[in-house]
Structures are given as C-alpha cells and as structure tokens.
Amino acid sequence: MAAVEAPATVGQPEVAGEAADAASDGAGSRRAALAPVGLVLAGCVSVQFGGAIAVSLMPRAGALGVVTLRLFFAAVVLLVICRPRLRGHSRSDWGTVLAFGATLAAMNGLFYQAVDRIPLGPAVTLEVLGPLALSVIASRRAVNAVWAGLALCGVFLLGGGGSGGFAALDKVGVAYALAAGAMWATYIVFSARTGRRFPQADGLALAMAVAAILVLPLGIVESGSKLTVPSTLGLAAAVAVMSSVLPYTLELLALRRLPASTFAVMMSLEPAIAAIAGFLILNQSLTLLESLAITLVIAASMGAVRTQVGQGKAKVPQG
C-alpha cells in the first residue's frame, strides 16, 4: 500500500510547483501587457507639457520657427544617441524612413500652425480625432469601437466646454488641427512599420533628420535670425526633448508590442493631459464640463488598456 501511495505524495509538490509557475507566468504576462501602456502614458505626459512650453515660445520664434528648432534639436540628440547604421538597409526600408520623416514634418508643422490660431486644448482635441478614426478602422474587435465612441464624446465636450464650442474657433486653425490629426494617424502607421524594420530607435533618428531637413527652409524664411537667440535655443532644446525625443521613442517602442487600434484609443488621453498642462503652465482653468470630458476620455483609455491586458492574459495558456 505504501508503495502505491508514494508516487501521490511525491507528485503533490510538482503540482504545487506547476501552479506557482502558472501564477508567475500570468503575473509576468500581465506586466508585459502593461509595459507598453506605461510607455504610451509617459509619452503623452511629456509631449503635452512640452507643447505648453512651445506655445509660450511662439511669440519669440513663430510657429514654423519653433517647429524647426524642435525637430533640429530632436534629430541631433537622436542621431548622437542612436548612431544609426546607414548601410545594410533595403530600398523599402529607406522608403519607410522617408515617408515617416515627411509625416513627422507635416504633423508638427500643421499642429503648430493650429495652436498659433486656436487654444492648445481645442487644438489637441481636434487633432486626436485622427487616431480615434484609425482605432475604429484598424480594430477587428467591436469593443474598441465602443471605447473610441466614448472617447469621442469626451473629446467634443472638452472642445466645447466653456469656450463657445468649435464654431467660435478660427476656421483656418480648425482646418490645420484636423489635418494634423490625419497626419497623426499616418504617424502611428509609419512609426509601427519603422520600429519593425530598424533596431532600437535607429529608424526614428533617421526619420527625424529627414523631418528637420524638410522644415528647415520654412523656419528660416519665417523666423530668420530669431532662431539664433540663446534663450530661444535653450527653451527649444527643452521642447525638443519633451515633445519629440522622449515621446516618439517611447511610442515607437510601445508600438512594437501594442496593437495600433489600442494605441490610437489611448491617444484620447492627450486632450485631458493638454488641459492639465495648460492649467499648470499657461494658467488655463478647467470648467465642470471640461472635467467631465476628461473623465470620459480617461474611462475610454482605461477600457482600451483592459482590453489589451485581457488579450495578453488570454495568450498565456497557449504559450
């Protein structure tokens, strides 16, 4: 009898060990699913606070001047840090980098033209419609359309709360913001493609250099010698790190592990963070309606996060 019972006694620690391993794998999978989400959130905070500083810099250097300095400093920092290889890439790889660089130039140029004409909060609110549209188009799950719809409600509330609605905004500024949103959606697509084709942030560094070259003539024509003022250069360098180097790098890394649809819905946090940055840096107050809007976009982003984490957990038993 003892001989029969012995294997059962020996087997119990093995079962317990397997259960512990499964629990550990589940926790590890959850952390892995949350990691790219944290990268996106950090990027959102950085880019909006950098944007608030950029708005205060525009009277000194102009919209295109700020864009030129931002992209120039961002390109220099990324090229020095990454030191990307120029050889060993296919023609398709270079085509992706050129398209990504042109998208970066257009997205930044259009957005700064917008905030030169309309307030930061409404500008970001309109711009985020591009990623929201992408989330609905790219997603294969109906639940992401729900999160996008919820975020869209918050976006419109935030844009209209306490400011007379979008009808009171400068029409040219609105057009620039919507065009920047379209470029933002394009940026998400090409950022993901670049991240898959180039190691680390090499592709981003090369694309940023392309963007800086494309915008440089426009900045020189508009701002000229204003671009060489030491205090302006210092603030522009800070804007470049906060609004380009850090967020774009984090987003590129996140898009290697995060579905584009989930990433796009999470971009609905941008208007909320922009409103907070405007309050802290530009002394722009929040109304009750704007606070409700912020709650809606945060709820939508949390729903997108839960969807992503749930997908990660679902894959664990198959591994």
Automatic annotation (TrEMBL):
<feature type="domain" description="EamA">
    <location>
        <begin position="172"/>
        <end position="303"/>
    </location>
</feature>
<feature type="transmembrane region" description="Helical">
    <location>
        <begin position="227"/>
        <end position="250"/>
    </location>
</feature>
<feature type="transmembrane region" description="Helical">
    <location>
        <begin position="94"/>
        <end position="114"/>
    </location>
</feature>
<feature type="transmembrane region" description="Helical">
    <location>
        <begin position="33"/>
        <end position="55"/>
    </location>
</feature>
<protein>
    <submittedName>
        <fullName>Membrane protein</fullName>
    </submittedName>
</protein>
<keyword id="KW-0472">Membrane</keyword>
<feature type="transmembrane region" description="Helical">
    <location>
        <begin position="120"/>
        <end position="138"/>
    </location>
</feature>
<dbReference type="InterPro" id="IPR051258">
    <property type="entry name" value="Diverse_Substrate_Transporter"/>
</dbReference>
<feature type="transmembrane region" description="Helical">
    <location>
        <begin position="204"/>
        <end position="221"/>
    </location>
</feature>
<feature type="transmembrane region" description="Helical">
    <location>
        <begin position="145"/>
        <end position="168"/>
    </location>
</feature>
<comment type="similarity">
    <text>Belongs to the EamA transporter family.</text>
</comment>
<dbReference type="InterPro" id="IPR037185">
    <property type="entry name" value="EmrE-like"/>
</dbReference>
<keyword id="KW-0812">Transmembrane</keyword>
<feature type="transmembrane region" description="Helical">
    <location>
        <begin position="174"/>
        <end position="192"/>
    </location>
</feature>
<keyword id="KW-1003">Cell membrane</keyword>
<feature type="transmembrane region" description="Helical">
    <location>
        <begin position="61"/>
        <end position="82"/>
    </location>
</feature>
<feature type="transmembrane region" description="Helical">
    <location>
        <begin position="262"/>
        <end position="282"/>
    </location>
</feature>
<dbReference type="InterPro" id="IPR000620">
    <property type="entry name" value="EamA_dom"/>
</dbReference>
<dbReference type="Pfam" id="PF00892">
    <property type="entry name" value="EamA"/>
</dbReference>
<feature type="transmembrane region" description="Helical">
    <location>
        <begin position="288"/>
        <end position="305"/>
    </location>
</feature>
<keyword id="KW-1133">Transmembrane helix</keyword>
